[in-house]
Amino acid sequence: MAILSKDDANTILKKVLSFSKADECEVTLNGQNGGNIRTARNMVSTSGAADNVSLAVESRFGKRSGVATCNEFDEATLRRTVQRAEEIARLAPESPEYMPFLGPQQYLTSNAYAQNTAGITPDFRAKQAGASIDLCDKRKLSSAAFLQDTTGFVAKRNSKGLEAYQQSTNMDFSVTVRTPDGTGSGYATTDFTDISKFDAAKLTQIAADKAAGSVAAKAIEPGKYTVILEPAALVSNTDASLLGALMQSFDARNADEGRSFLSKKGGGNRKGEKLFDPRVTIYSDPTHAEVPVPAFAGDGRPRQKVTWIEKGVVKNMYSSRFWAQKSGIADIPNPGAFIMEGGTQSTQDMIKSTAKGILVTRLWYIRPVDPQTLLYTGLTRDGTFYIENGKIKHPIKNFRFNESPIIMLNNLEAIGRPQRLGGNLVPPLKIRDFTFTSLSDAV
Amino acid sequence: MKRRDFVGLTGLAAGALFLPSFPSFGGMPVDPSRLLEPVMDAAVNKRLADAALNAAKSAGASYADVRIGRYLNQSIFTREKQVQNIVSSESFGVGVRVIANGTWGFAATNTVTEAGIAKAAQLAVQIAKANSKVQKEPVKLAPQKGYGEVSWKAPIQQNAFEVPIAQKVDVLLAANAKALENGANFVNSALFQVNEQKYFASTDGSYIDQDIHRIWPTFGVTAIDRTSGKFRTRQALSAPMGLGYEYLTPKAADKVMGPAGSDVVGYKNSYDILEDAARAAKQAKEKLTAKSVTPGKYDLVLDPHHLGLTIHESVGHPLELDRVLGYEANFAGTSFATLEWKKQGKPYGSKAVNIVADKLQPGSLGAVGYDDEGVKTKQWALIKDGILVDYEKIRDQAHIVGQNESDGCCYAQSWQDVQFQRMPNVSLQPSKTKMSVDELIKDVDKGIYIAGNGSFSIDQQRYNFQFGGQVFYAIEKGKITGMLEDVAYQANTQEFWNSCAATCDESDYRFAGFFNDGKGQPSQSSAVSHGSATTRFNGVNVINTARKVG
């Protein structure tokens, strides 16, 4: 019963609410099913499947709150779960940041669900993984890959009249291809709401070409270089990333409290200030056809189209409901995904217009060094190439970088055509004076 | 960007950015009273386990193991004078792993009945058979004798789940008050508690009942200079431990002083959170005006809380045999320490470097009686006198390096995840001859003493790394001369360990630990400790991390 229809979910939610004796009660159903397959050394290593549905009940007496959950749906269990939430609430301390539950909300329609993704079978996974392996077998390369798919739903209802329901699907696939002697490595990744355009072999081809092309890499001196960062060097669905780190820093409370790059000297925040190149515009839109996300946040707040950075100027920050009320700012929840506006150039077009530079496939192990400046460190990986006179000249050894996305988005040379990655829409970027601080022997 | 991270950005998660790291739990929130229910009944578990093993064998499995697990977590989050959140969660279910047609298969269920478990076992066999069509080599397990019915319990003195929540909240709020009294502008604190009740059975004839506890009190303080807009943080010097609530009762004998002039105190098997919070606030303020480091070569003196992370990243991970063989190539990466590299006998480190792996040290996060594939745990050498002598391996890997015994370091984060090779405790052995921290630095002409782990990054084959820390002190002509800021060191793993000059003796030995070491796809967390004494490394490259923006 992992994926319940809106009607079936509402039947359970209404029944649970009818048992409540609290001042306020909110009930949420959450379900997922899906599976995965993992390969390494051109063989399947592990695969599995899982499904689960859980119910959470939050009861409140005044400013005291309690939560209890269950994953059985007989009447006795549901009654017991409500009673337990009420018992915990009576014993809890009052919250100074209490906010009453939201009443009825209007939500946009987000097409975050695709039937053909929900219908993925073990055979589909095995077939795609097999196609990826076959390609590498034929080219005498070694691959390691991972495919996972998830179908989920969330349904929420409370005593103030809020009703919300959303289904969503996602599939992601990544592959690392290496030469048998370990001197070349390439990577490619993709993700979809709707898998109709997914082709594991086609993506594996890109990784295989990069692996074969990165053999016999030359060392060049660390320093400041013009770089073309492909989307997998800007966002990640498995690790921290430079643009992800930037967008995670748009919390209004941290900025107002003085512990964010968006904090203003002497107090307040930097909303309205131009902090980036005028070509930088980043927004979010839950209804976007390519990167839809659920139309409401976890606390039931509606997600709208929101512009975070417009022509280099900070336009909005997200916050908790408590902080928005306390500081009298717009009540904006976290966005779920972001879209960076781009141009029409492909990565190849960007290479053609580069006299000297470095093409970066992927950045890895990115960690904060200084939260004040958003300085991050990490390394290039799985395909790093030197560009000269508009052409890939030769592969180069990997570098460690120390760079801030704030500085990076001020040193913008060109923006390419956006692509979906990690549920976001991100263009390749050409950046000048990107700071590489040391060489790495890793391949 | 990691999509699920972005979704979790409001409220709690935003505050958690100021904590050292943020654990993820697979369980569901439950009434705290549920966490005190008696541990699982071994007789019932044996009956259920036999149902799984019999179903797997009937379906065609040549080997099967079953893990019945009840995983309890409780986390308390506070900031300044208030509680932010209390989460109690429980996850209960069964995972069945089989070999059929020479291929692994795995399935899990939370329907913990004989019928539900048998169904999962049959599904695991079905998956194994399906995958065997694309398999090229059959799984080969190191032999393992059955232990019969045995049990193991973590040697805790006080179960943290039995301590009233109000008492735990009071401790965190008292620590916050200490930080605020001593000049912190903000403080976030948290207490994480884990209890794994695990029952393992296999067709080898083992029925193993284990009760495992972990605890981690931690905080992050922030000091702000409003005029300049500058802010600095300092995180707790506690270690996550395989202990009970007794870890939060400080004992004088467990406090270890840093070098004279440093105002650093380290902690062994108990932790003084009030004292550390007060000191953290003072140090965060001092960091606002500390001298910015001049880049260059320095002799580094690294305290165990800091060095544990360097050991973790540059020794613990590269010696995981699954990484070495390529099984983690698409995510965590591979390793420079290949089988060929080992054969060459090149020095991993200087002769002062002796590193052991274990799953035994009392109070460590790795300590268990048996691993998640029913192998009794042990200690073994990884690096002897600077030379690599062994890897970290489990039953299906031992034959690849010509061995016939697992190291007992197989682990799954929950009943619903498949077990695989994880890092054991990996620890640097202290000096056998007497050596204090002050003696260690007395010959350092130009150096930096670093305490606490901070920023960390290393490449996918574990050559090039960069580490920050919590507090940094300049050493000039054998003496601490004052605090430094903007310090990070970059090194190559082999060059770094070969620059190891000396380490302190056992009186300085203590653990650093990590609750959430990530590996695998889908990613799983495991907890691991690293023991060491304060250690000196000569001539390491230090960079200045200060930048100007906007």
Quickly describe the structure:
The complex is a heterodimer of chains A (443) and B (550). With 443 residues, chain A is of the alpha+beta class. Helices cover 21% and strands 37% of the residues of chain A.
Can you offer a commentary on this structure?
The complex is a heterodimer of chains A (443) and B (550). With 443 residues, chain A is an alpha+beta fold. In chain A, 21% of the residues lie in helices and 37% in strands. Chain B is built from eleven helices and 26 strands.
What is the total tally of β strands of chain B? 26
CATH architecture grouping of the largest domain in chain A: 2-Layer Sandwich
Taking the alpha carbons of the first and last residues of chain A, their distance comes to 45 Å
Oligomeric category: heterodimer
Give a count of the beta strands of chain A, DSSP E runs of length 2 or more.
Answer: 19
As a whole number of angstroms, the C-alpha radius of gyration of chain A is 24 Å
Chain-averaged pLDDT of chain B: 92
Determine the mean pLDDT of chain A.
Answer: 95
- Derived structural class of chain B: alpha+beta
List the strand order in the largest sheet of chain A.
3-2-1-4-5-6
N-end to C-end Cα span of chain B? 24 Å
Portion of residues within helices of chain A: 10-25%
Tell me about the largest β-sheet of chain A: 6 strands, antiparallel
Q: Show the largest interface.
A: A-B, 118 and 90 residues
Question: How many helix segments of chain A?
Answer: 10
Name of the CATH superfamily of the largest domain in chain B: PmbA/TldD superfamily
Catalogue the unreliable spans of chain A.
none
